[in-house]
Amino acid sequence: xxxxxxxxxxxxxxxxxxxxxxxxxxxxxxxxxxxxxxxxxxxxxxxxxxxxxxxxxxxxxxxxxxxxxxxxxxxxxxxxxxxxxxxxxxxxxxxxxxxxxxxxxxxxxxxxxxxxxxxxxxxxxxxxxxxxxxxxxxxxxxxxxxxxxxxxxxxxxxxxxxxxxxxxxxxxxxxxxxxxxxxxxxxxxxxxxxxxxxxxxxxxxxxxxxxxxxxxxxxxxxxxxxxxxxxxxxxxxxxxxxxxxxxxxxxxxxxxxxxxxxxxxxxxxxxxxxxxxxxxxxxxx
Length: 285
Hints:
It is built from ten helices and seven strands.
């Protein structure tokens, strides 16, 4: 699963956001994206180009000279296309260049564009801070904290434009920043870094973003490295316990002294000295 950096309103790295694979880990379909980009560029064309035909150009109502007898080529009007100041043959006329694509096609192209940026690590999820007044300097500082370099696309989501009007005014003075409510295939591909707010990410994925704390991610490798040490400590503890149990069992199984020795010990006579006296008495007899 792809991961994007999450930055809070203060501009600090507050964790990471898990991006769903079905949107941000799709194999880009280049022909589909090309068709969608062409449709976008065609839709933004004004199509107001226009030229005048020989019927629309002023003048040329009479025949310049008679049909025969002059030696010149025959003409019926001075506004013919081959004449200077004449009409234009087959010239452009106002038209609409837009053509439609299916919803599935546009959705697949957008997924491919987002996946391409996610694979490059060029997607950042932020909490857009409020601006008390338009301030371009603060906008530049935010871009530096976000790590957004080059062409930047900021997607705010479908919310009231009046809520972030000062924010929009702060970023619009920067020629390399585009702030929009909806992410499109063309805009995503044209940007080097895509900045998504939590609202925009919710609209794209259809679910709230799950923000993971950076501390948990940093502790994960430490647990893996300490695992062998923990096993050694457990092994040493088990060995010490086994040795203690062995000593206890040895103490419990030690043989008891004979009754005579027990009696001598009770009178305070050592067993070795009593045995030596008995031997001397037997020798004396």
